[in-house]
Design a protein that fits this description.
By secondary structure, this protein is an all-alpha fold. It is built from 4 helices and no strands.
């Protein structure tokens, strides 16, 4: 679950930056207010962005705050992944040691 959340979080952030670029282009061409009045021609996520932010600076600030959260989630995921790999490898070491011990005892009989 953590894997899915961390991968999805980074991908969603990337899509948010794409929408920010579109937002900035509308702002520069003075079409932002018109887009806010008539958001139907845009995808649903961009419609939400149009209703949520007054300008591109507000949009950028929100993305920067979210970047910190996404980066932390990805770092935690990588840490847990290393712990999981370590635990699995230690199980294999224990099983291998048990097999060698049993093989050594059976050859002595």
């Amino acid at each position: 679950m953590l894997f899915v959340a961390s991968v999805y979080g980074g991908a969603e952030q990337n899509r948010s930056y794409d929408r920010l670029e579109k937002f900035i282009l509308l702002e520069k061409s003075n079409e932002l207010e018109q887009a806010k009045k008539n958001p139907q021609k845009y995808d649903s996520m961009f419609q939400i962005d149009l209703g949520s932010y007054e300008n591109s600076s507000e949009f950028k600030d929100n993305l920067k705050r979210n970047d910190i959260v996404v980066d932390k989630a990805e770092a935690i995921f990588i840490g847990w992944l290393f712990v999981l790999i370590y635990e699995i490898s230690m199980c294999f070491v224990q099983i291998f040691g048990y097999i060698l011990f049993r093989r050594g005892n059976s050859s002595m009989s």
